[in-house]
User: What shape does this take?
Amino acid sequence: MTADGAIRAAFRGAVGKFFLDAAFTAPARGVTALFGPSGCGKTTVLRCVAGLLRLPDGFCSIDGEVWQDKNNAFAPTYRRPIGYVFQEPSLFPHLTVRRNLLYGAPRGGVGARSIAFGDVVDLLGAALLLDRSPRNLSGGERQRVAIGRALLSQPKLLLMDEPLSALDRAAKEEIAPFIERLRDRHLLPIVYVSHDIAEVERLADHVVLMEKGRVIASGPLSDVESDLSLPLARAFDAGVSLNGVVEAYDADYGLLTLSVRGGRVVSPARAGAVGETRRIRIAARDVSLARERPGPSSILNVLPARLVSVRQVDLNEIVAALALGEEGVGERLLARVTRKSWEALELAGGAPVYAQVKAVALGAAQDRAEE
Amino acid sequence: MRQTEALVEPLTHIWAPVVLTLELATVTTIALLVIATPLAWWLARSRAWWREGVAAVVSLPVVLPPTVLGFYLLVALGPSGPGGAVASLWGARTLAFTFTGLVIGSMVASMPFVVQPIRNAFAAMGDRPLEVAATLRASPARAFWTVALPLASPGLLTGAVLGFAHTIGEFGVILMIGGNIPGRTRVMSTAIFDLVETMQWREANILAGGMVAFAFAVILSMILLEKRFARARA
Assistant: This one.
């Protein structure tokens, strides 16, 4: 098979009392999150991709390279060019940090497109720890070393199984920016298992939504977030995460202008260089709707959009999916409003509408994400 | 002249069994580590249903009277057993009453004391370190040598010490298959028996006291080692 730029996985079978029947295709670049509640089979899927678990009825290929197929082909884990970061760092206690890092590194020369020891040490800030025993490291330090160790084995795919969930808040904040840097450098595709939507919104480009051993949706993050037929969009804290490009920064007011597909969003944020990509999350609860362009108001973001679909989430509230732009071809946005105001608006599918977002709400959401 | 001889003679009398005992224990321990380690690995990791059956067979010497064990070993090592067949390869008639026979007998008798701690060590480390090694491109063989063995080293050490000590302390099996031949199969434990039989109390005292001191040293060092490993692991 030739390179197809995709991660293709399909696994079916019983694991103990649990039955897995999960299939998805995701791009072989960026971060793909396997997301779902605890016990839905995310980790099992990841273990199948790694070859740590073998379900006879399975298929797995990465960018055209087949690791398992239904004709009984199966590459054992140690023959798969993967890196795997477990929930617990699982460093080798009998080796120093340096020897842990180098355990999987190819002996002899490494190619030009490789991940160098010095780079990983810099990236991780692990230089000071190199000759220590893993026993003397903090939880966050250990997980950093575990990630570095996986990277130095020169993987073509990085698999991460809830790498943050065993860490305290401070340690999480050590690791999360590191994974973001990894993603933004486009070194290699990452499959990331998480049950924490905040992590997924922060890190993922593509989401595979799982429930009870099945895949219920797979798509780009904002598509999955804004799909009203999925539970995410109906949740109280639903929202969409958009990648915007910095257009301007107003240092006087501390406001950043981001251009997203189909619109422009202003938000209080730390300074950014023009052209830099920033991720912004717009919560459905922070979006209000108007039929006509509102007059002067304190609301900085008034975005023309078109109504795509609507769904009642409970007795008195509805959530609407919008497409940004006059033509309605831009990014999706969610708005959660009361049934009373919705009925007053009398909107039909495809109708033009103005979405209003308080900039302060966006700033607060970012602060939460970066805490 | 006569006096020095009188002094030296009983000392060689004692010394020969001591040397033979140490030789036997050393060879037995090394051979046991080579055999018990893969066996313990298999017992710790196999999912075969008959695994515990094998474990029980390995542990039999703990329960069986040494005479029973010695009797079967004598038959097996003798001219009409497999031991005799092996011995005929170099023109001998039997493995019983030889040093090789003692090594084989001691290995069988001490096997459970070596296998059990190594098996426990392999089981205690769980699958995770080996999974990690596999995700880092380590073949199963490399994972075994560079991860499993080092992590199990406390168990290997415990097994080696127990195997060595138990071989030195074995009496019944040795007497049954060794025959207590001076210089060939007379080890410390059987030598003491002999000395007491012939009323040589002084020599018996020296040997017996030495073994008490040895046993004390072994047990104390085991306790201290275990403490140290527990600290290192914490």
Summary: The first helix of chain B runs from residue 2 to 45. The two ends of chain B are 62 Å apart (CA to CA).
